[in-house]
Predict the 3D structure of the following.
Amino acid sequence: MVNTALFYWVGWMLWIISTFFMKKGRRRDFFTIWILGVIITSNTTIQIGNLVIVTSIFLLIFGSVLLLIHLERHINLIICSFTIMIGYSSILFWEKVAPVWLFWPREILIPVLLCFLTMLLIRGLDKQICVLLLGATIGECLFSLSLSSYGINGDTGELPFLANLIEAIVILLFLDIIVRRKTKKVKDYRVSIDLEVAK
């Protein structure tokens, strides 16, 4: 229940930010339609064989691939996404095999680890969001496929997954704002020093 409320609340907040606070243009339209589509399709499922997949998974993969196409260094981003995929599915397997080793609640540990790994691999908010979404979404599909091969079936991309994903994005946004403010302060400080030296 908490995951559901968190996903919808933060999802609508992100949609409001993209709709009313981003500059007008294709970028704003893309993010607005994408976020709204993910929110709308978060309750609909498609069955493919033994797998039951939440429709928003397809939108997340499609949107992150579109975002990746418009960014530079595609090969590097794909490799980073693959690393995130392996890391995310490994965390889920670890949780399944030895849940006692999860020293924090799942809702905190998974987003924090995803953000930490993403920030280690790549710089730039657009690239980080693209890599995080693509890697974690494909990692969720890989985990579900692996479980279904053992006869354990569950919905792929349920609300707990979407909530973890949106938490990780919010953490990345928050850290990006902090970094930008610090770099702006450093630049202002350097400019003031240069002016004093010039005098």
In short: Helices lie at 2-20, 26-40, 56-69, 74-97, 106-121, 125-149, 159-198.
